[in-house]
Design brief:
Layout (H helix, E strand, L loop, with lengths): L3 E12 L2 E13 L4 E5 L6 H8 L7 E6 L2 E2 L5 H11 E5 L10 H6 L11 H11 L15 H13 L5 E5 L7 H18 L2 E6 L2 H5 L3 E6 L2 E7 L4 H6 L12 H8 L7
Parallel strand pairs: 3-8, 3-9, 6-7, 7-8
Antiparallel strand pairs: 1-2, 1-4, 4-5, 9-10
């Protein structure tokens, strides 16, 4: 059974007498354990599609199932629960709370669900997993960009999600840090079986995945699977088998169930 199943998914924004079809009838099936990228130029609908798959936006039309369960018509509370328990989000801008330490940032999603006595040890274990055990007491301003993004990944994992949705996770990072980050995501995918979907405009990042879905004008124009060695090729700067080389707070509040997305 697909972990995510979209059929005819559509999101229309109406402005005065005109309308923009940001996502225009997309059908997409994502199997458990996939490591895939969504690519397209600016305005192609990448982030809107990711927000629909992550239940941050409601579609104008179409169907969406997560773990075989339809989320169309779900209440705001039900969607918040799905986001907290089934989906981990990683944003380009990191979205860490400046006044909180690394471990407190990782623990943040646990505040909005059932109380977990092991919250602190769980957060520490995840920071260790992403190589930041010695940085648990540091605040975001004391961390590099790559370290902040790894804290964000640990936070995304704290509720044991079935899916990680990453929106341009390497967009603010240099190439060397980007490679380390992609290695972290790939290791999580391989070792823990976490389904991972990465929105990117970077062909090198896309080349490190096993599947690339390409969008144009809100529609899927290509759905390509790699030969399984694209990750190693991308990290070494070689072309892959298909020829490819190497507003924040409202969304954070929404995924935690503390208000609507804007």
């Amino acid at each position: 059974m697909a972990i995510l199943e979209a059929n005819g998914l559509t999101k229309v924004y109406r402005r005065a007498a005109s309308e923009v079809r940001a996502v225009d009838g997309i059908s997409l099936s994502v199997e458990p354990g996939e490591f895939m990228a969504i690519m397209g130029r600016s305005g192609s609908g990448k982030t809107t599609l990711l927000d629909l798959l992550g239940c941050l936006l409601r579609p104008t039309d179409g169907a969406l199932e997560i773990d075989g369960r339809s989320v169309i018509g779900a209440s705001d509370g039900e969607l918040a629960t799905i986001r907290r328990e089934r989906i981990g989000f990683v944003f380009q801008e990191f979205n860490l709370i400046p006044s909180l330490t690394a471990i407190e940032n990782v623990m943040l999603p646990l505040r909005y669900g059932p109380r977990r006595p092991d919250a602190r040890s769980r957060a520490g274990e995840l920071l260790d997993l992403v190589g930041l055990r010695d940085r648990i007491g540091h605040r975001p301003a004391e961390l590099s960009g790559g370290e902040q993004q790894r804290v964000a990944i640990a936070r995304a994992l704290v509720n044991d999600p079935a899916v990680i949705l990453a929106d341009e996770p390497t967009g603010e990072l240099d190439s060397a840090t980007s490679r380390r980050l992609m290695t972290t995501l790939r290791d999580l995918n391989r070792d823990r079986g976490v389904t991972t979907i990465i929105v990117t405009h970077d062909a090198g990042v896309a080349g490190a995945t096993d599947r690339v879905v390409r969008l144009q004008d809100g529609r899927v124009i290509a759905d390509e699977r790699h030969d399984g060695r694209g990750f190693e090729r991308a990290l070494s700067g070689q072309p892959s088998a298909n020829g490819h080389g190497p507003r924040v707070w409202p969304r954070l509040r929404a995924l935690l169930g503390r208000g609507g997305a804007r």
